[in-house]
Amino acid sequence: MELKAVMMKRRSVRRFTEEPVSREQTETLLHHAMSGPSACNARPWEFFIVTRPETLEALRDAGRYTKHKAPLMIVVAGNMKKALPMQLRDFWIQDCSAAMENLLLSAVDLGLGACWEGLYPMKRMVERVSKILNLEEHIIPLGMAAIGHPAEDPEPRDQYDPKRIHWVE
Predict the structure, then answer these.
(1) Which 8-state DSSP code applies to residue 164?
(2) For the domain 26-152, what is the CATH superfamily, name and number?
(3) 8 A C-beta contact, residue 92 and residue 80
């Protein structure tokens, strides 16, 4: 699929079939996620691939907006041991967000659907997901991507708004 088509077709998909996402597709998603930009190439991301039904159910119960029944959940997290030092530390958020967006775009290109379920900075949800996945203290989950074969097909859309553009010439 062409980049323009992928960009316009990328929408939050919240209903999925039960068909599993293949290992090959999952690997492709991860290759694309890790191709994202990273401040000073620190790459402070970690990816947790969840397909075990009991863990998927626990993650669905982690928050108000995490209820999507997808056969695959990828948790994108920041590894603070790999984050930049001192005042640059919070660049992990941008790095992991870029990885998440690449993951979502890759899903569209593979014919899959995905929904970004935000966790950070909501402390309770971060704590719940950390506990479910038994994450070490220096790993902070940024968000989860519910991924699967879509049971719905939202219309592509262009959200371009010229009122939000401010030319500084």
Answers:
(1) G
(2) NADH Oxidase (3.40.109.10)
(3) yes
